[in-house]
Fold these 2 entries.
Entry 1:
Amino acid sequence: MVNLTDPPIVGERRPPTITLEGWRRFVQEDPVNLDLLPDDARASLTPEQRLAYDDARIRYHSELVVVKTSTVREVTHQGRLLMLLNQREIGARRGLIVSGAWATGKSTAIKQLGRTHELRVRTQYPEDDRIPVVYVTTPPKGSPRKLAAEFARFLGLPAIVKPRYNVTDIADVVCQVLTDARTDLVIVDEIHNLNLGTSAGEDMSDHLKYFTEHLPATFVYAGINVEREGLFTGVRGKQIAARCVLTRTGSFPYKQEWKDLVATFEQTLRLHDHTTGTLVGLSKYLHQRTSGVISSLSHLVRAAAIKAILDESEQITRQLLDTIQLDHAAEEAMPAPSRTRTRSTG
Ligand SMILES: Nc1ncnc2c1ncn2[C@@H]1O[C@H](COP(=O)(O)OP(=O)(O)OP(=O)(O)O)[C@@H](O)[C@H]1O
Ligand SMILES: [Mg+2]
């Protein structure tokens, strides 16, 4: 529940989830919730209170909930299954690769898997100072050293990434810390940065394999269209392919799940004059504007909600949605109607 006395939205900073501190905060924080004030209570707010109330609602809409889409469900289900399968395995453990176009919810899904697992472990072992989950991203133009440094960074061990330590020293320390902390899920995002077509990419892949062999953990990877970008080519690629289950993500077709998604977003709105059902009625329009991409839908709805608070209209209408400019990819596919009009009349 958002409190009117919460600090203002500007200047709020969270540590990134690629550090242990940021990851733990992400895991522990419950999704923001906020109840609308009854009309008479809202009418009796002082101007300062009204500002704080609107600020709290803007902050709420700037986050919005994570929807349990089919992608989130499949990734959490597959991940859990593999972890159970791997728990007694001492040889080649099976991994999971989440692959799909950009902005289709890959990172969201793997983070939800990590969060669910960590919360489960924390409930089971409340006293233990475990690190059940590690979340790192593959460095662009990376090297084994940079990859090892990502793990060290997550663990807050910058001291071991000194020139006098070679890459194996760093990896050994990282593996030891993670084994002691009983890490059983390692999430490696942005795996498309690992290009097996280059020798640096091959080295990094070998190094990742070193981690998978030295850590008794399940590895989950996510990256943009990795099967097309050569992650599975060559001997190394074949080896990865033989050990991993592949889950694909993509844009939503204009079917029931899309309408359900729109309905879920609509239910989360906290606007005073919004007629529930308006957004669902605009499902087709929303699909055309966003090409069925969840990231663009989320942007469109949240931006419209914030605009409706700022302009005091307190409702999302087709007219308002027309004025919202989307990300470049979505705009290229389908320009915002208001911009088309501006162009044709201007
Ligand atoms: N399950 C979900 N519920 C609500 N919003 C979501 C969900 N999945 C994705 N989104 C929205 O889409 C945005 C992009 O999602 P995400 O970062 O997970 O995509 P991605 O596939 O990892 O993108 P990239 O290819 O750029 O790494 C999120 O910031 C969020 O706004
Ligand atoms: Mg991502």
Entry 2:
Amino acid sequence: MNLKELGFDGWFENHTRELFRPEMKIARVTAVDRGRYMVTNEKGEIPAQLTGKFSYAAESSEELPCVGDWILTQDFDSEDFAFIHKIIPRKSFLRRKSPGKDIEFQMIASNIDIAFIVQSCDDNFNVRRMERYLVMVKEGNIEPMIILTKTDMIKIDILEQMISQVWNAGISSKIIPLSNISGDGTDQIRRVLKAGKTHCLIGSSGVGKTTLINTLLGRPEYKTKPVGETGKGKHTTVRRQLITLGNGAMLIDTPGMRELGIMSVDGRIDDCFAEIKRRSAKCRFDDCGHTNEPGCAVLKAVEDGELEKESYHNYLKLKKESEFYEMSYTEKRKKDKAFGRFIHSEMKKRGKNR
Ligand SMILES: Nc1nc2c(ncn2[C@@H]2O[C@H](COP(=O)(O)OP(=O)(O)OP(=O)(O)O)[C@@H](O)[C@H]2O)c(=O)[nH]1
Ligand SMILES: [Mg+2]
Ligand SMILES: [Zn+2]
């Protein structure tokens, strides 16, 4: 497999030039499992490990390689094991706030062209959560599409209602209804999957992400949850990996996410609520927060019933959540940097005194 087929295009070439050294090889991270990596280069897939220097210098998990990353490696002894030296800049990424109290980003995957937000047509279906995922996808510079699975479990009019709910919230992404059982919708997905492009499946545990991959491969290659097993919250997929389909399209499977904290660093949440953004152009104040300002066009649209109330409230909620974390994040980065400078100057002093 050549690098181009793996998705290495002109953009990455430009961003590699300055980092490249003759003894290095270009590879892509194809699987990550608790600190262990599998990487693929022109010769095939091999295990890899971070150099000590790399692990030592990484200040946060964001700076560690994730599935989809392009990296520079060096062979260890033979060609069947590599050391990871550098990450080539990411063109796009999926990241969330680390679960719990940590104020840090956690990388999910990178260098993705299309992200499929997967929800199943049962109690998993939730437009507010969909909006949350959309923020994450658009922030990362990725095109979102929505897949509604398990359509075999509901009547067609219920499916139509669900689709209208998505539209009413102002979400204009492509929606693909799918049944892994009847096969309805798989052709539509196949048409979207392009050779040399990278796609990613994200969504709660148990919605059928891995089953879809098996459907596309035409064989039960990857482990899915046994039918009828309830045990909610148990994740079947545990590692993130990049799979190449028969037509050369790449697809990343991820474990279901229970918690999806939003931390938007440059306040791009507005971009995800297209209808609110469009209307805010008519607000009296340029910095209108759309909560109680006079002459707010967004509030007026909600009052007039032209803008969905629930979507508007979710917008405010996500914005507030994000601003809260963003503040702490900026503070933390400042402190980390100051500490880094302190260590650096101490080391220098010591060097001189030796
Ligand atoms: N009725 C029906 N069941 C499905 C469909 N797709 C998947 N399932 C079932 O849903 C269960 C969960 O599927 P998985 O593919 O393991 O779900 P997942 O999204 O990969 O879950 P995690 O790996 O835990 O994130 C399995 O028992 C599947 O057989 C579908 O279209 N219709
Ligand atoms: Mg899975
Ligand atoms: Zn306003």
